[in-house]
Amino acid sequence: MTSIVSVSTGALSPADVVNVARHLAPIELSAASLAAMAESRAVIDALVNDTIPHYGVSTGFGALATKQIPIELRTQLQRSLIRSHAASSGTEVDREVIRGLMLNRLSTMATGRTGVRPVVAQTYAALLNAAITPVVGEYGSLGCSGDLAPLSHCALAVMGEGKVRNADGELVDAAVALAAAGIEPVVLAEKEGLALINGTDGMLGMLLMASSDLRKLVSIADLSAAMSVEGLLGTDDVFAPDLHTLRPHPGQMAAAANMRTVLAGSPLLAEQKAGAHQFTRVQDAYSLRCAPQVHGAVRATLAHAESVASIELASAIDNPVVTPDGRVESNGNFHGAPMGYVLDFLAIAVADLASISERRTDRFLDTARSHGLNAFLADDPGVDSGHMIAQYTAAGIVSELKRLAVPASVDSIPSSAMQEDHVSMGWHAGLKLRKAVDGLARVLAIELLTSARALDMRDGGLASTKSSAVITAVRESIRTKVEGPGTDRYIAPEIEAVFQLISDGSILAAANSALDAPLV
């Protein structure tokens, strides 16, 4: 059973967010968080009868902030805010994105800086624990003033309105789902509607999940690159530690170390160095020789993105915010630029990591560069096409990833009668990064599938393997799902099978099973 995640006044960990978003880990609010919320709510309650206007408490919103709202209409004000802002459209966003968004908003509430009553946070926690997920379309957030539309759909569900998916994934009315789970809808009080929608929670959740995925995929990339080096009769000399200490980027050194580890003890490379394959190349192609440099740059980019995410995860983002000394102050902390930039930066790194992988795949298929392998790794070239079109698939994905690498964060567009005249587009940067990460995993799957076939063709299969212990273990894992070389067969399920082995962790587990310490 997944352990309970405690939401308190301090920051959640990235792993906490992933576990709740993806794995339905249960959550609980700490006593400290409930006390902090009660304390800040008292500050808001003290302003209710104040004749001085306070944004979100006694005024309209955005460009309508100059309008003072009478006390008897303030409940309607909060309700109207949520209903009008729940304006998303398009394809339904994945459940894990919405769960991550809700948890991050709950985490900010728990800091006690938003002024919401404890019951609001408790209701959010109840929805998450009941696996009730508001339905949100992909369009609607500009990534400034928070992820307004997506967060509004979540607040709407807490009010018992709108559409949700229940724990079984069925589309139902929120009121029905809440009643079935024994959850009482919330009637929002002053400021609470605004406090539920002014955050970077959606883009932050997408960044945390993409970073978690990419941390594993970059190790897979080291592994697949090493398999390609072995399968293409390359050399591991260029991965020597002393060469990488001359340019000591930490990520580059980690990638080179991984590739050395994967290739250690390879009989195929030992034969090649002994001259069995009449090795005459002075240098391997860049896609082989420079893999640590490219993979290392991806790691550096990822480390930067993770540092930004950790700061955001420890932040209390709302407007206005209740400060620790009891002031209620307007601010611009909801602007998504920090998230938008690194989401876009990661999309660039993902595209390039996939690009170099596809180039290695392509080398296996060309008789002028594959060093003795059949054209396209076909059983009978001409009769069979082998992996010709698998490479087309990888190339098509890489081309799409290059388009997805075009930054969203530079495409600000004004809104709210020019009051909100510069926005981050971080939400869309997050959505496209999710698609990019999925594409990268598929490109790496095709490289692994191709290199495993090439190695089988070189050494006759696992019974007579000449691969290193690590690569042999990976080949064995692939062969549990995909047959070895032979005449052409339906290849799409084979690509999908290796993609699933990557996604469920089987490939890395197989590699690590042959090691004393796991790949980094």
TrEMBL record:
It is found in: Cytoplasm. One of its GO terms (molecular function) is histidine ammonia-lyase activity. InterPro entries: Aromatic_Lyase, Fumarase/histidase_N, HutH, L-Aspartase-like, Phe/His_NH3-lyase_AS. It catalyses: L-histidine = trans-urocanate + NH4(+). The keyword Glycosyltransferase does not apply. It is an enzyme of class 4 (lyase). Keywords: Histidine metabolism, Lyase. It comes from the Bacteria. The keyword Lyase applies. Pathway: Amino-acid degradation; L-histidine degradation into L-glutamate; N-formimidoyl-L-glutamate from L-histidine: step 1/3. Its EC number is 4.3.1.3. SUPFAM superfamilies: L-aspartase-like. Its main location: cytoplasm. One of its GO terms (cellular component) is cytoplasm. GO terms for biological process: L-histidine catabolic process to glutamate and formamide; L-histidine catabolic process to glutamate and formate. NCBIfam families: hutH, PRK09367.1. Belongs to the PAL/histidase family. This is Histidine ammonia-lyase.
